[in-house]
Amino acid sequence: MILCFGDFELDTDRYELRQHGECRQLEPRVFDLIAHFASHPAQLFTRDELIDEVWNGRLVSDTTISTCIKNARKALGDNGVTQNYIRTIRGRGFHFTKNVSERRTQTGRTPALSGARPIRPGNTGPCLLILPFRTLSGNPEIIRLADGLTSALSTILTRIPLLRLSARTTRYNNTAVAPGARDLHDELGVDFVIDANLQEIEDRVRITVQLTDARSDLRLWAEQFSIPANADSAIDKGVVAIIAKLEPQLLRAIYNTLRSNDGEPNARQLFLEAYSMLALRGWHHDSFSVAAELLRRSWTLEPDFALAPSCLSLVMGFGERVGLIGDRDSARAEALDAAERSLHLDSMDSTVLGFSGCALADIGYPDRAIRILTNAVEINPANAQAWAALGSVCMLQGRLDEAVTHLDHGMSISPLDSRLSIWGAFLTLALLLSDDVEAALQQGQLACQRDDHSYMPRVILAGVHLVREEHERARQTLDDAYRIKPDLSALQITTLLGNELGGALAQFGPSGSGAS
């Protein structure tokens, strides 16, 4: 369908804004905003309503909305003074001032002007509702803690790509008993519900959190946490503890839901399947191969979907760096192309920046990667992957104090899944290069513990043992790496540990017992 207004045509099938036949360059979210306004001319929308419709209920700041409206006006040759297309009604919201006509494109699709807003194929992702955390006492300090935990958890979960967080939480603030999960699904269309209660026990607070599948009303996960009762320090400690256990369970639920769906998956579903699988199964040769194919299919189905090529760039770039991809020259070329394309499509999404920046560092562009990754964590300080990647790049540049700080911070705010094994391996190496051998030993052992099928932390831990002159332990640990990767080469060992230490370790080779 084509929406016509003033000198412009908005093609909702081709995702193009044309003025006198010439295409105007738009970021995807700006296109969605203009399409939403043009589909509902003269209708007033509050900021909350725009969040629901254009940002799919995600938590976004007023600055983000204002910037998007500013860019939409700029694309239309408008500004905040003239407001010829998008007018601000102070204290109430925004509306589209132009008359809009419509015509069908050659595809013959049904016009959407009188119905729901036109969206890109598969634009919706899974939707989560976090109910206000409830207290079992009237203690104002505990009530403040409950409110703070609810808000902080809602903020940090926005880092999961395509996860929509319902903004309609406040309607249940003063409700004695919240509706059941199935009722919430029927009323709001949410897929998953998180709820929790807080109970004060002496000088501590016990928090019981549960995750429910709203469609089936089945509880997927529940756990109790105990934290100090002081609200100022407890919010940070509580959120870190909860998110570490909750996020992997939420990703597992999303992954299982996608795998059980009938029919051909769309681009967004293919991306989510790849992203969730990497988190749950770990970063290995097999998982990288499957993820790469899923991401290529996603990108083919929706060429302007930036998350797919950005994640593909990370898979190919990191895979090339550590030897998880067979044809390394081809992998480097694909990683570079995918990173460039994703950054062209969306240079303001923290996840896109985190993936692409990591890939560029892995294939030899560390200076550019530093700038991109720094931008990623400024946009979203909860982006644990970007923090870890930033630390890894600092290590490549010899900035070891910064490397340790960023890697440690990224791990501290990350979920407890197999990615910690990879990040822990690089933290081990940064500590080793900083001559903090004891701390490196502890981190290396923990990194190996976190994933039984990752060879990288074992190679690096073997290097730590070698520095400690524990030759037999170095041999045993390297044998464990050969168990996982029988074709482990001297080049892959020196890529991780450097020529001197890696070369000395590679001389051990696999022993008969270790390679079995």
Automatic annotation (TrEMBL):
<dbReference type="Pfam" id="PF14559">
    <property type="entry name" value="TPR_19"/>
</dbReference>
<feature type="domain" description="OmpR/PhoB-type">
    <location>
        <begin position="1"/>
        <end position="98"/>
    </location>
</feature>
<dbReference type="InterPro" id="IPR019734">
    <property type="entry name" value="TPR_rpt"/>
</dbReference>
<feature type="repeat" description="TPR">
    <location>
        <begin position="384"/>
        <end position="417"/>
    </location>
</feature>
<dbReference type="GO" id="GO:0006355">
    <property type="term" value="P:regulation of DNA-templated transcription"/>
</dbReference>
<protein>
    <submittedName>
        <fullName>Tetratricopeptide repeat protein</fullName>
    </submittedName>
</protein>
<feature type="DNA-binding region" description="OmpR/PhoB-type">
    <location>
        <begin position="1"/>
        <end position="98"/>
    </location>
</feature>
<dbReference type="GO" id="GO:0003677">
    <property type="term" value="F:DNA binding"/>
</dbReference>
<keyword id="KW-0238">DNA-binding</keyword>
<keyword id="KW-0802">TPR repeat</keyword>
<dbReference type="Pfam" id="PF00486">
    <property type="entry name" value="Trans_reg_C"/>
</dbReference>
<dbReference type="InterPro" id="IPR011990">
    <property type="entry name" value="TPR-like_helical_dom_sf"/>
</dbReference>
<dbReference type="GO" id="GO:0000160">
    <property type="term" value="P:phosphorelay signal transduction system"/>
</dbReference>
<dbReference type="InterPro" id="IPR016032">
    <property type="entry name" value="Sig_transdc_resp-reg_C-effctor"/>
</dbReference>
<dbReference type="InterPro" id="IPR001867">
    <property type="entry name" value="OmpR/PhoB-type_DNA-bd"/>
</dbReference>
<dbReference type="InterPro" id="IPR036388">
    <property type="entry name" value="WH-like_DNA-bd_sf"/>
</dbReference>
